[in-house]
Amino acid sequence: MIDPQSNDNSGRRIFFRNCLACMGMVGSGMVAAPLASFLQRPNRLEADSTIRIPIADIKEDEAIYRDYMGAQIVILINQGKPLVLNAACTHLGCLVRWEHSSRSFICPCHGAIFDQGGKVVKGPTNQPLEIIPAEVKEGVLIIG
Prior knowledge:
single chain; alpha+beta; Rieske Iron-sulfur Protein; 2 domains; four-stranded antiparallel beta sheet; three-stranded antiparallel beta sheet; 1 helix; 10 strands; elongated
């Protein structure tokens, strides 16, 4: 004679085993997807891309941030001339923030301070911000 309760238990066991297997697959996917996207190489902009900004659009007291060649750059007028700097702090790569009141760049991660020309005022870094080559032609700043 077949015990009706034994069939119910084995059916439940199979159901719960399948549920646990599905939850394991979903959990693995939730871990694997962000990990895979983190390990991907970042998209790079084309090496021959250029940025063109009319000099009249750049105000003396204002910093302009742009993407260039896969990095953030900052553009400002320094002593009447345009200056283009890599906006990554040379300590650990955090993006520096322009402070108009002190006319300096401040790293929000570890407190490094750079002057308006990119030179180090206060560490922990001792390397200045990288200057990006740029030129002015016919009233237009050309980067790249």
